[in-house]
Amino acid sequence: MENRSSRINDLLIHALNNLSQEEFKGFKDKLSHSDFEGKGTIPRGRLENADAIDTKNLLMAFYGGDAAVDVAIEVFNQISLREAAANLREERENGKKPKVPKKPGTLPKESALGQRQQEKKEKQTDNYRVKYREHIQNKYRVIKDLNSRLGENVTLNSRYTKLIIVKKHCHKKEREHEIMTLGWRHEEIMTKRTSFITLGNLFKCDEDGQTPQIVVLLGVAGIGKTMTARKIMFDWASGELYKEKFDYAFYINCREVNFGSEQGRIADLILKNCPNKNAPVEEILINPEKLLFIIDGFDELRFSLDQPEDSLCSDPCEKQPMEITLSSLVRKTVLLESYVIITTRPTALEKLRQCLECARYAEILGFSAAEREEYFHNFLGNEEKARKAFNFVKEHEMLFTLCFVPIACWIICTVLKQQMEAGEDLAQTSKTITGVYMLYLFSLLKGHSSNSKKHTPANLKGLCSLAADGIWRQKILFGEEEIKKHGLDISDSLFLNENMFQKDIDCECVYSFIHLSFQEFFATLFYVLEKEETTTVEGSETAMNNVKKLLENYGKSRNYLMLTVRFLFGLLNEERMEDMEKKLSCKISPKIKPELLEWEFSSFKRNAEMIYQLEEFHCLYEIQEESFVQSALNHFTELYLAEYNFTKMDQMALSFCLKNCCKLETLYLNLCTFGSEDPNEDSLRGAHFPLCLSVSCRLTNDHLTDACYRDLSSALSTKQTLTELDLSMNNLGDSGVRLLCEGLNHPTCKLQKLGLSNCHLTAVCGGDLSSLLSTKPTLMELDIGENNLGDSGVQQLCEGLKHPHSKLQKLRLMNCGLTAGSCGNLSSVLRAKPTLTELDLALNNLGEAGGMKLLCEGLKHPDCKLQKLRLMGCQLTAACCEDLSSVLSINHTLTELELRGSLLRDSGVQLLCEGLKHANCKLQKLGLKNFLLTDACCENLAAVLSISNSLTELELGIDYLRDSGVQLLCEGLKHPNCKLQKLGELKEETRTALKTIPVVEEICGQSRCKTGSENPLAKRESAHCYFYNLI
C-alpha cells in the first residue's frame, strides 16, 4: 500500500507545479496573510524565496497531512483558481496519484524543473536519513559509569539488561506486599503482574484499536528510565526497533534543557541531535507522523508545561520560550501527527497529567531475578566472577532485594568487582547493608542535583520524619496531607513513589517509599541526625527523636523495628558519620553510641553469660567497629543457637562477632542449616563457616555441607584453643571425615573431644580415624556411635588406638553394627592402652561365638584400667555372665557396668552376683533392668546388697517383680552394710503396690528417723525413685 504521506506530497507538489509564476506568487502571498484552522500564519520571510518544493514542505510542517491539502484548496479558492482547487480535491478523494502528461513535450518547463528538483531533494533526504542513523548509533553505542575515569566507556548493549515494564495499575494490597516483602518473595510478587509490555509494543494498538501517540514511562529514581530512553534511540538507529514506523528519533534531555538557552524552536531541538547544523530540517518536518521525540526526565524540568493554550505555537521553526516550545510539542499544537515518549518519576505525574489529554502509561518496575543475574554477567564479563558474585548476593536477602533497582544493582556490582580485583573474600566484605544504602543515597543525590549539598538537609529532614512516623505507626502508604505535614515537596522528592488506587467511585493518590527497607533507612536517620538536622512535626507520634525510646520498643516487639535498629548501628560507624557530614552536610550525634553500648549490655544481661539471639549479631555486624563489638560481647562465654536457617548474611554476621567475642568458650548450634535461600536450588550451597571457634563447639543436626567441613578443617589447623568439637547428626560421610582429618592432623590442632555420632560413616573412614588417633595425643574422647562402621571399620580404628601416641580415654561405639568378631580387636586395645577408662559398646550384637570371652580377657589384664563399660542391648546371654563375673572379681578399676536390655535371665544374674560379692569388686553402678528376670534372682541380689561396700546404684526393673521378690530385696536393703542409694525408677502402679508391703513401710520408717550419715537411703534424691520418698 502506498504511503499516505508520500501521496499527499505528490498531490501538493503537482498542484503547485501546475501554477504559472504569477499564480504561484499570488498563492504564497495569500498564504502568508491567512490564519487557517487557528494555527497562525506561515512567516512571510520563509515563503518569499521558497520554490514549489519549499512551499510544499512548509505546508506539511506547519499544518501536517490532510490539513495541508485543505489549506491549499482554500487558498486556490480565495485567489480564484477554482479549477486547481477542484482538481486537487478530486485527486485526493479518488485516492489516485496526480496525472502526469505522458509526452515530455506537453510538460511545462517549470513543472519538469520542479520534478527534477524534488527528486534531487528526496535523494538528498534519503542519504541524510542514513547518515543520521549512523550518527545516532555512534552517539548512543557507549555509556559512562558514574565513577568512570577519563577515557573509560562501556558499550550500551554489553551493559543494558531488560527491565520489567507493566501497563496496568496494581491493586492497593498488591502494592503494599510489593513494598514490604524481601528476597525471593519480593521477586515473585513483581513477576506475578500479567500486563507486561515490551519496548517494541509501546505504540501498539489497544483493545479499542487506538494507537497512542504519547507514551509515558514511569519509574522511581534509579530504576533505569534514562538507560531505557538511550536504548530506544540506539535500537532505532540500529534498525532493531521501530524501523518502519519512524524515519527520525530525537532525544531531549530535560536536565540539559534547564541549563540551555531560554528560548528555542522545535527545529533547534532536532538540530541538537544532528551531526551538524546543515540538517535538512524542513524535509525532516514534512512527515511528522514519521517522527519520534523522547523527552527524558520530565520531573527535572524547572518550569511547568501547563501554559495558556493561546500562547502555544504551531510553527516548528518559530522561536519561543522553551516552556512554550516543549508544551506545544507535548500538547500537540505543533507536529500534531508526531509521536512522543516521556520518562518521569511518578511524583511528577500530577503536573504531567495537566498537559496530556490522552496517553498510554507504563511503569518500569526494575529487574526480575533472571535479569539481575544477567546484569551481573553483563557487568562483570567474566563468567566465573559473575557466578560467584551473584551467588553471594542471591543468598543475602537484603542485597538480593535491593538489586531490583538498577542503580543499586550497579553499586553492588561495582563494590563486588573492586573487592574481587583486590583478591578479597566476598564473605568477609566490609560493605554492610547500611553501607550499600548510603551509597544509593549519595548516588541519587549526586546524579539528580548539581547543588544537592546545599538543599539536602532541608529536604532530608522531612523525608526522615515521614519515614519514622510511618514506621512507628506501621504505615507504608501516605496521603498528600501527610506529605505536606512533614514539609515535603512531592514533585521534588527523589525517594517517593506515587500510587493511584481506585476507591469507590473516585481515585486516591497515595505515596510510598520504593521499598519498606528504604523507609526504615530514612526512619533511622531521623533518630541519629542532630536536632538541627531533623524536624519534629507537631502532634506526630514520632516526635520523640529519642534513641532510648526506639530501643525500648524494639526490645518489646522486635519484628517491625528490626531493620531500623540494624541501620541504627550501621550509621554510627565513624567512617559513615564522616561521610554523611562531608557529602550531605548532615551531622550524626556522637552521643548516641555510648547509649547504644549501654543498651547492648542491658539487653545481653537478661541472658547472663549465654547468647541465644542471632539478631544482636546482625546489629553488631553493621557497626563494623571491632572495639565496640568486643566491649559489647566481653563477658560472654557461651553461644547457643537452635533451629536457624543461616543465610550467607547470617554466617557473615556470626563469623564477625565470634572473632570479637574474646572470652567465648562454647559454641552450640543445634538443628541449624547453612546454605542458600534460593527455593529453586536442589542442594545447599557451601556456607562460609565461622572461623573463630573458641574452646567448645557443638554443631549438632545442622545440615552442614562439604564446604562447611573445608572451612572447619581450615579453622582446626589454625585454632589452638578449640578443644571440643561435636558434629553429631550431620551428613558428614566418609568424604567429610577425610576433609576434617586434614585439619585435625595439623600440629596446631589441640582438640581433646570429637563427637561424630550418627554422621553416616562407614568402614571406609576407619583408616582416616585410625591415622588421626595415632598422630593426635591430645584427643581424649571420641564418639562415633550410630554409624555403620562394622567389624572391618573398628579393626582399622583399633590399630590407631594401640599406637603409642594415642592417649584416648573415652570411646563410644554404640550401635555401630559390630559383632563378636570385633571383640578380639577391642580386647587387644584394653590390654595395650591403660589410658582408656570408658568404653560404650551398647546396641551391638556381641553375645555370640565367644565374643564376650575374648573381651573379658582384655578386661582382666593387669594393664586394663577401664572404669565404665556399657553393654546395653548387646544380646548377652546367661553364658556370658560367668566371664563377666570373673572380670568383677579381678578388675579393681571397673566402677560402672551397664547390662540393661540383655538376655541374662535369673541364672545369669546368679553367676554375676558371685563376682559382685567378691572382695576385689569395686563396682558402684550396675544396670540390670530386664523383663526376663523374676523373683528367683532376688535372693542373690539381696546377698550382694548386704555384702558389697561399693554398690550405690542398681537399675533392676522392680516393675517386673512380684511382692515376694521385693520382700527379698528389702531384706538386703535393711542390712546395716547396705550402701545402696538409688534403686532405679518405678512406674506409678509399682509405687502404689509397694505401699501395701509391710517390710517396705518398715524400711521407710527407719530411713525417716535416721540421719543421712547413718543410712544411705536417707540421701536419696527425689529425682530417683527411692522407697522412702515414693510412698
UniProtKB/TrEMBL annotation:
Subcellular location(s) per record: Cytoplasm, Cytoskeleton, Microtubule organizing center; Endoplasmic reticulum; Golgi apparatus membrane; Inflammasome
UniProt key word ATP-binding: yes
Region described as Disordered: 89-127
Pfam families found in the cross-reference section: FISNA, LRR_6, NACHT, NLRC4_HD2, PYRIN, WHD_NOD2
Coiled coil: none
SMART domains in alphabetical order: FISNA, LRR_RI, PYRIN
Record domain Pyrin: where: 1-94
GO BP terms: inflammatory response; innate immune response
GO MF annotations in UniProt: ATP binding; hydrolase activity
Gene Ontology terms: cellular component: canonical inflammasome complex; endoplasmic reticulum; extracellular region; Golgi membrane; microtubule organizing center; mitochondrion; nucleus
Keywords: Activator, ATP-binding, Cytoplasm, Cytoskeleton, Endoplasmic reticulum, Golgi apparatus, Hydrolase, Immunity, Inflammasome, Inflammatory response, Innate immunity, Isopeptide bond, Lipoprotein, Membrane, Mitochondrion, Nucleotide-binding, Nucleus, Palmitate, Phosphoprotein, Repeat, Secreted, Transcription, Transcription regulation, Ubl conjugation
Transmembrane intervals: none
Catalytic activity: ATP + H2O = ADP + phosphate + H(+)
Compositional bias of kind Basic and acidic residues: 117-127
CDD domains, per database record: LRR_RI (cd00116), Pyrin_ASC-like (cd08321)
Every NACHT domain range: 213-418
InterPro entries per UniProt: DAPIN (IPR004020), DEATH-like_dom_sf (IPR011029), Leu-rich_rpt (IPR001611), LRR_dom_sf (IPR032675), NACHT-assoc (IPR029495), NACHT_NTPase (IPR007111), NLRP_HD2 (IPR041267), NLRP_innate_immun_reg (IPR050637)
PANTHER family, sorted: NACHT, LRR AND PYD DOMAINS-CONTAINING PROTEIN 12, NACHT, LRR AND PYD DOMAINS-CONTAINING PROTEIN 3
Chain's role: Independently of inflammasome activation, regulates the differentiation of T helper 2 (Th2) cells and has a role in Th2 cell-dependent asthma and tumor growth. During Th2 differentiation, required for optimal IRF4 binding to IL4 promoter and for IRF4-dependent IL4 transcription. Binds to the consensus DNA sequence 5'-GRRGGNRGAG-3'. May also participate in the transcription of IL5, IL13, GATA3, CCR3, CCR4 and MAF.
Family recorded in the similarity comment: Belongs to the NLRP family.
Protein name: NACHT, LRR and PYD domains-containing protein 3
